């Protein structure tokens, strides 16, 4: 496995791979790798001749009062996991390599970035689309892999990719969960033992809501209220949002129909967790 | 020469050219081709195995009260000129092909888009960088050719290309002028016979200012005032701006040093013309 820090170096590797017509799979991450990330890697290895992972805690997707500084980092551990999994290249640029002095260009998807997580994280998705666009230009992947856990992120990246005519296929992989249902996330490391237990209410409430929908409930308000009430049984849970939107466009819906995305964000102390579920409603 | 309307078709042609390791030169235009455009084509033909031109009057770079509807168009004439010159492919997408229903993604360079032309055309450069980014993703050129006449446009596109790590080399070609000095522009077609004569004051004032600088003048205000006074000798000329900025960064300068860009925009009736000159000052 090669570990590369410089854009020029990875571009030259990519170009020589392309010349041999090898397909490139790409897994962009912020590191502190868990089984969710590794499932993206496994899928990329199956699909492609060559798999590149990036590890970069991207400052432009954090708000001024968010957790950029304390975001968990473990580069040595990450590199061991990547090597063991069979990643070909890990790209670990510095902040200065990605955003040199005088950096000024941003890619923004309008509309669907203002709802759900975008409401409380106003510039978050602009940071995500900018870094992903840059990484796509650097790595020139045939396919790129993202986790369904960040449902809105995937929708925004798909929209950018299609709107800007990028030559990358976006592949969404299922959310990987702990045995008790909690969606895997690097931010779970922040949770106290007590909050870690309480946090299982997020996936529980979504699975229970799914059961209600499968039994025939189609009233959007009722489903949202049900989830809110279930979460509020944990007194330390502070709800940021609970919503049900169209699973493809993320547009508001009046009642549940087609692919519905149930999505939520909840804070336990300083730790903001998200989870979601896509449910096919006839 | 092939004329292509669909993105999918041009992408498939580009991919098969790339497989044979041919280099691709790209000349994006809004059509109504003049010798300025054709000089870009000639340079691309010399540099590359394969030359693609696009003709697309891009709606997102026109303001609500600007000349999108009446912008001059002559597709038949343009195709004849392109074929005669030796262009391999002309890409002529529809508005709907480039901006399908629900289009939402924009590329924006901050800072240098707010000065010079950006002051009176607030979303202009956002439209330019968005369409050029899209066309680069569609055509995947090795080199792309732009005229020095649109000096700020070139600086903004260079900045986007470098910031977003695009795999394209931007080549700037000299401004082509009419015999009396007027910079060639599709918008010159708007001018009345009288305004066409008055408009020569633009290049005259720039050439005279260059002479003053070459004789030793380094006072920015004096040079700007000189140009303004010269332009005002034509009573139908309405100055939008006259400025002197750093030729590379477009940053404000206190006195003339290094590569200096003298740039101006002037209206004759409804017709807004621009011109500029880069002058090396020791």
Radius of gyration of chain A: 19 Å
CATH class of the largest domain in chain A: Alpha Beta
The geometry of chain A reads as globular
Biggest sheet architecture of chain A: 6 strands, parallel
Described by its quaternary structure, the protein is homodimer
Instruction: Output mean pLDDT of chain A.
Output: 97
> What is the assigned CATH homologous superfamily of the largest domain in chain A?
HUPs
Major beta sheet, strand line-up of chain A = 1-4-3-2-6-7
Under the CATH scheme, which architecture of the largest domain in chain A would be assigned?
Answer: 3-Layer(aba) Sandwich
Q: Cα distance, first to last residue of chain A?
A: 47 Å
Count of the domains of chain A: 2
Name the poorly predicted regions of chain A. none
Strand residue percentage of chain A? 15-25%
Largest interface: A-B, 29 and 29 residues
What is the CATH topology assignment of the largest domain in chain A?
A: Rossmann fold
Order of helices and strands of chain A: EHEHEHEHEHHEHEHHHEEE
By DSSP (H or I, 4+ residues per run), the number of helices of chain A equals 10
